[in-house]
């Protein structure tokens, strides 16, 4: 028998090896993660995004899955080592013409290969489950962070606003999770293969004379020198890709955003006949995308050309080195083929780091984009805003100062108190700060200071000139921000009739793009129906009847006064017909001055 291993006892040796490898890898990985998170910027960024997911207080499943993936990776490496020996036996038996040994080795190989295929499939399934679970959690985490404290809106006011949060949440999260898995399991797999196959190569390696000196274990030395030099050159060629990848994501997202805006404002653009301008704007964004794509392509061309040449040379390199010893009879045929296999494995493992430079560049760019979004969310929550406290039965404003971002005052020291049933009409020239006053009262405007007490949560409602209509049915639009099932059929229909939208009664559950179908006046009437349904204690109406005629405006305000007599109303409007529905008037006079009068 010409077996290269003691196959009878190999299962015990393999088990011991796997157990040792598991413990060593676990300790080394934990130490590496800790060091990276402590001493590198991207390590810290990774920690911010990943550690909360693995927090044991949330559950043990994520960590246990990682351990399972690690165990499967180690198992796969060990199998590859055994397969390499099984192949050695096959070729050695062939070289020596031992038919029986050959068939025994074929059977051994078949069993090992079958186990390898099954374990690869299991490993793939476990990895996919892990990736999907992590991605679901992280997407939810990012959305929650973005929505909390009005960050999705107030982030426009921070010093460094971020572009395209939608792309960061949708694409970058997915990329981050997939790359984290790929790069970490890839690193473990490459490191273990490197150790295992270097040992094999070591055993098969002999001395080689170089410039009159004998280099011992030359195969190992040459493999390492070869790949390390290649890696260094590849790093130099690939380095600009980090910045270019970052740019690519940003430019593509900005092009996509311009297309979405075109779709969203199609009617206005069509009325203006603005296609030429739109085409030019789209073309200029797309040109930037393409220019960057070309720079990336040329950079990749260099990198790929270099990587391919390195890989091709590596195919024959071990045969050339071992051939003299084979012809001298010191090596079996199986040893030569196993050398080539081990060299390939060492080369591939080392090359993993070189070839994944590209992925790593994109990975770092993704980390930057995700953490920049989290920073912007955080900063926007820290932006100043007036102190708002709950007061269920009044609106009390004390010493409110509002100014523009350029520090021009809009409102200086506004103080007022409103009781249930009272109504205030805010007037003033365009740009005097009427809408900004409402933004300040809703804690959206960061350039304001003072104290506000008002009914909290859903007991205060803001209705703007163009009410927001969410995607979905008319009932969803009516009930917003409450869920649609909150309003009974009868009530919903009655409200539509009340605001003179009875013709939509039969379409109440139709899903449509309602903000495109309904006229601005109909949308404003729907906004009033929403107020009537939600019965707030305080309603802010910002030019909420600007698109309806005076008769309809009268009818809508009368409805509010009749059905919600206790509701405090603060309106912004220009028409004198509104005077009759308000008990107090606030005039914004510009440069921070204001005047208050009773109606
Ligand atoms: N995000 C912003 N950045 C910079 N300036 C802003 C911003 N939002 C509003 N402003 C400025 O603040 C001022 C007040 O704007 P606001 O929308 O409150 O006016 P308004 O009285 O409601 O006007 P109109 O009657 O035309 O609706 C304007 O000069 C406006 O340009």
UniProtKB/TrEMBL annotation:
Domain ABC transmembrane type-1: 67-362
Tagged with keyword Transport: yes
Any one GO molecular function term: ATP binding
InterPro entries linked: AAA+_ATPase, ABC1_TM_dom, ABC1_TM_sf, ABC_transporter-like_ATP-bd, ABC_transporter-like_CS, ABC_transporter_sub-D, P-loop_NTPase
Membrane topology: Multi-pass membrane protein
Residue ranges of every copy of the ABC transporter domain listed in the record: 395-599
Name assigned to this protein: ABC transporter ATP-binding protein/permease
């Amino acid at each position: 028998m010409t077996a290269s291993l003691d196959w009878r006892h190999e299962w015990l040796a393999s088990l011991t090896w796997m157990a040792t490898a598991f413990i060593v890898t676990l300790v080394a990985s934990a130490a590496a993660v800790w060091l990276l998170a402590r001493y590198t910027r991207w390590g810290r960024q990774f920690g911010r995004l990943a550690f909360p997911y693995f927090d044991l207080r949330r559950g043990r499943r994520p960590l246990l899955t990682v351990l399972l993936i690690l165990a499967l990776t180690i198992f796969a490496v060990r199998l590859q080592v055994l397969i390499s020996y099984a192949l050695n036996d096959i070729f050695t038996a062939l070289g020596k013409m031992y038919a029986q040994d050959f068939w025994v080795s074929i059977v051994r190989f078949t069993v090992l290969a079958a186990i390898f295929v099954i374990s690869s499939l299991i490993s793939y399934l476990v990895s996919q489950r892990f990736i999907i679970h992590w991605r679901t959690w992280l997407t939810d985490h990012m959305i929650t962070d973005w929505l909390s404290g009005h960050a999705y809106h107030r982030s426009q006011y921070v010093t460094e606003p971020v572009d395209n949060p939608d792309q960061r949440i949708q694409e970058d999260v997915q990329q981050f999770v997939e790359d984290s898995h790929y790069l970490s399991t890839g690193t473990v797999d490459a490191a273990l293969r490197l150790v295992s196959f270097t040992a094999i190569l070591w055993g098969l390696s002999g001395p080689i004379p170089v410039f009159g000196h004998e280099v011992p274990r030359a195969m190992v030395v040459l493999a390492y020198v070869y790949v390390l030099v290649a890696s260094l050159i590849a790093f130099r060629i690939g380095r600009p890709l980090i910045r270019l990848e970052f740019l690519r994501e940003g430019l593509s997202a900005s092009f996509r955003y311009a297309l979405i805006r075109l779709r969203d404002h199609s009617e206005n653009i069509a009325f203006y006949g603005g296609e030429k301008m739109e085409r030019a704007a789209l073309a200029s964004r797309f040109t930037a995308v393409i220019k960057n794509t070309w720079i990336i392509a040329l950079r990749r061309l260099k990198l790929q050309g270099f990587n391919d040449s390195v890989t091709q040379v590596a195919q024959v390199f071990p045969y050339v080195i071992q051939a003299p010893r084979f012809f001298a009879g010191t090596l079996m045929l199986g040893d030569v083929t196993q050398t080539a296999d081990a060299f390939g494995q060492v080369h591939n493992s080392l090359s993993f780091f070189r070839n994944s430079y590209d992925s790593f560049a994109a990975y770092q760019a993704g980390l930057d984009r995700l953490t920049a979004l989290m920073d912007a969310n955080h900063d926007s929550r820290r932006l100043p805003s007036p102190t708002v406290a709950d007061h269920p039965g009044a609106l009390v404003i004390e010493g409110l100062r509002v100014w523009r971002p350029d520090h021009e005052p809009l409102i200086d020291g506004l103080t007022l108190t409103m009781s249930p049933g009272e109504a205030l009409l805010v007037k003033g020239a365009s740009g005097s700060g009427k809408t900004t006053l409402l933004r300040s009262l809703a804690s959206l405007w960061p350039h304001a200071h003072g104290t506000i007490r008002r009914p909290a949560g859903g007991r205060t409602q803001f209705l703007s000139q163009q009410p927001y209509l969410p995607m979905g049915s008319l009932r969803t639009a009516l009930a917003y921000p409450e869920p649609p099932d909150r309003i009974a059929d009868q009530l919903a229909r009655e409200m539509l009739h009340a605001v003179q939208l009875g013709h939509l009664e039969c379409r109440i559950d139709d899903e449509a793009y309602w903000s495109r179908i309904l006229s601005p006046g109909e949308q404003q009437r729907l906004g009033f129906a929403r107020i009537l349904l939600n019965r707030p204690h305080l309603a802010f109406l910002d030019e909420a009847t600007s698109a309806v005629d005076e008769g309809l405006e009268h009818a809508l305000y009368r409805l509010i006064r009749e059905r919600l007599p206790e509701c405090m109303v603060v309106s912004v409007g220009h028409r004198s017909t509104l005077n009759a529905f308000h008990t107090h008037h606030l005039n914004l006079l510009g440069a921070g001055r204001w005047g208050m009068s009773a109606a």
